[in-house]
Here is the input.
Amino acid sequence: MKYFEDIEVGDKAFYKGPTVTKEAIFAFAREWDPQPHHLDIDAANASILDGLSASGWHSCCLLMQMITNNPANPIAFLGAPGIEESRWKRPVMAGDTLHASSKVVDKRPSKSKPFMGLVKRHFEMFNQKDELVLTMEGWTMIARWPDAGARGE
Amino acid sequence: MIYFDDIPIGAFSDLGRYTFTEENIIAFAKLWDPQPFHIDPDAAKDSMFGGLVASGWHVTCAWMKLMVAEREKAAKERGAVYAGGVSPGFLDLKWRAPVRPGDTLHYTSITVEKLDLQSRPTFGILRSENIGTNQDGVKVFSFIGQAFMPRRPEGTEAS
Here is the structure.
């Protein structure tokens, strides 16, 4: 398990993602974003996105899924206070296969909660053509070494 | 049809309410955000939250669900059909306080900024401030949303 102290600015990570099927796009959209251009092929083809695309929120959830399903590199996450910015550069289209990367851009200990620190990461998600589809940047709360107090840190 | 030009800064929408339950919190998180404090009530007790909390993405997606429902209602009841709906992303999203089973959030949206698009003069970007407030009046969620909207075609008038 990686803790706050184990993470350095500049650290990179890579994430494998799924192929996003038409059915997956419909299923997400029916529940959370039932706009015609995410639910109906004809409406999708007539939209300015020119084909069936995933909800932007679906794209965000896919990135979250890729980050949390990354057992090779477990980090002691304690949650996140938010996202500073997410840019939806390109739609995720039916049939796209995704991958993503992250880079640590800043870190600082929490002033109010000595058991944790905050790490700021910049994420980029790509399709199978390596086109950038989405970026996200924000702080995540990460536990400090369990014995950090004992070490006087 | 409602275009970019037809929406003033300050336009307000009451999006209604969404109730979080242990069942829907776990179901959402198992799919999208399977961290122990979102999917396992026992493990969540030992977390810094002291109990199960909703994924921030669940709190966010519930906003979208209500926003689409509000737009459909406006179309049905008032004939107010919004052009557009595609977004370039969002800003300044804050999960300000935990959302727990039994919490009911009241969501609102207000137009705060209108941006011209040099690259696409027939479109503008609307920015909205979106807020989720729980049953105790605590603002637990907020973000700045953005939507591309076409401008009113020349020679047409607002209905």
